[in-house]
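Researcher: Next sequence.
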Amino acid sequence: MRDSDGYATDPALLPAVPAGLRRVLDLVVSGEATSRAEIARRSGLARSTVGQQVDHLVAGGILQEIEAQKSVRGRPPRVLTLGPQAGTIAVADVDALASRVAIADLTGRILAQDIADVRVDAGPEAVLGAVSERLLHLLERTGRGPDRVRQVVVGLPGPVDFQRGCAVRPNGMPGWDGYPAVEFLSERFRAPALVDNDANLMALGEAVQEQGDTPLLCIKIGTGIGAGFVSATGEVYRGADGAAGDVGHIRAAGGSDALCTCGNVGCVRALASHRAVLQQLGIPESTDEDPLHGEHELVRRVANNDPHAVRALRQAATEIGELLAMLVYVFNPRRLVLGGPLSELGDDLLSGVRAVVYQRALPLATRDLTITTTQLGSGSALHGAIALATRDVFSATGIARMLADDVEDVPVGS
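Model: Next structure:
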């Protein structure tokens, strides 16, 4: 059931989770029930079964039962919540110039976050090593033990084979192709790990933020241009090989001879990405003093209404709008979200994209479509990573793993 370090690795060897226990935990985690009586009423389980499962979860530290702060006459009611030692989630959003990292509790609440200043082209071992060190520092700073990490999720700025847990032939990421990122993270934290594309995580973060506003299509306009799609049922579409959403390499509608990193000419990425706009304006992407110099300088120029910067932004908006009009036909989303540093530069990009999409796409595809910038800003991918992590933690396998880690025996009653 466990390896030499005590980490439960093989799902087939984990104990079965009683249906009653999982139902009890689902109700508490979702907030639908906060007391034993409410659980019995909503689940239809016998009070004795509820009591047995609650006692087991409390004994393992997964749940805690405390007195409510406010009460009516008589004995204060007791409330069930996730225990503070139930576990921690560690997440990271790796980008071209730096990586954002955060830790969260199992409710999804971010406890601390930081930035690891390491370029993605430094290679997987350097990047994942720096990310891991920052996450371990955050765990120490917040008093969370590394042995209580339940899930690690990392987003990468390139195509990802989700099942294998590695990047697949990403542009501008030397050494990353096929590198076993999941194995690296699992070994470092002695916990399950997942690796996904950053645009997928951004889309999932936005979808969780705006519950019910799906299907949702999220476009990240950064060093490249990527798309993440979340279906009406909340599932991320990744494609057969992890290449779904790598839309920056579609040829621009207006045509161009600009050389792209993929070797083709005229890709939207080569004309309208954040990096492409910086190159057109002659702005260095980074400096020794400021790794995000380009981002900061472009914000300053647009805020000062520099005509060259505003024109470059509007041209990018036109190219991106043509691309998105096509994607609207393919996916018919309810909501279209613009993310990444280029989306944070005021209304010029958003209004330009809207104008092209509503002009090019037919009314049937746009009559209920909302086009907006990200609600979570640069934190969208981190929130998406947390959402992906909690789904895994509270799956049947995840719950079994928690029980195997915390207690020796699982009750057989249901």
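Model: DSSP finds 14 helices and 13 strands in the chain. Residues 11-85+396-406 form a domain with the Arc Repressor Mutant, subunit A fold (CATH 1.10.10.10).
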